[in-house]
Amino acid sequence: MEYKHKVVEMISKEQIDEAVAKLGKKLTQDYKSEPVVMVGVLKGSFVFMADLVRAIDLPITMDFISAKSYSGTVSVGAVNVKMDTELDVDGKNVLLVEDILDTGRTLHVLRETMLARGAKDVKIAAFMDKPSRRAIDIKADYSCFTIEDRFVVGYGLDYDEYYRNLDYIGEVIL
């Protein structure tokens, strides 16, 4: 299949596999004494979430929420929740699982939402962290990679809904 844009590989499948396995071990340690509800932020986190939950050696519960603040390559500012969680988070530890922590707007809104619903603690696991784009003071508690300000795709991340199926992370050359 030929794509519309050129994509230059930045992070290989092997590097991704190694980083996700390492994070899974860390989360297994950190949550061994208290259960956690993992909430994947759709659509981008679905590949990362699937691999990450299999790398965690604990009983966990999981749910999903669909929220976005992007249209194409541009952050539109407002966070739009399209699909909400079903599990009750009252009194529970919540781990928000996101593909990329960019401006921070989406995760800020979702963290505040989980806390308002009574979550005991809310942490963030971002597959990639892009601190140079931060518009809100928020940090990932866990991340696999820190990247510069580039538009990346693959491993669940998209450009106009394409490229999510790539097994590596690449920069889109527009």
Automatic annotation (TrEMBL):
Pathway: Purine metabolism; GMP biosynthesis via salvage pathway; GMP from guanine: step 1/1; Purine metabolism; IMP biosynthesis via salvage pathway; IMP from hypoxanthine: step 1/1
Domain of life of the organism encoding this protein: Bacteria
Thylakoid recorded as keyword: no
Pfam families assigned to the protein according to its UniProt record, in alphabetical order: Pribosyltran (PF00156)
Main location: cytoplasm
Subcellular location: Cytoplasm
GO biological process: GMP salvage; guanine salvage; hypoxanthine metabolic process; IMP salvage; purine ribonucleoside salvage
InterPro entries assigned: HGPRT (IPR050408), Hxn_phspho_trans (IPR005904), PRTase-like (IPR029057), PRTase_dom (IPR000836)
GO cellular component: cytosol
Domain Phosphoribosyltransferase: 14-159
Enzyme Commission number: 2.4.2.8
Reaction catalysis annotation: IMP + diphosphate = hypoxanthine + 5-phospho-alpha-D-ribose 1-diphosphate; GMP + diphosphate = guanine + 5-phospho-alpha-D-ribose 1-diphosphate
Family indicated by similarity: Belongs to the purine/pyrimidine phosphoribosyltransferase family.
Role of this protein: Purine salvage pathway enzyme that catalyzes the transfer of the ribosyl-5-phosphate group from 5-phospho-alpha-D-ribose 1-diphosphate (PRPP) to the N9 position of the 6-oxopurines hypoxanthine and guanine to form the corresponding ribonucleotides IMP (inosine 5'-monophosphate) and GMP (guanosine 5'-monophosphate), with the release of PPi.
The name this protein goes by in its record: Hypoxanthine phosphoribosyltransferase
Origin species: Candidatus Faeciplasma pullistercoris
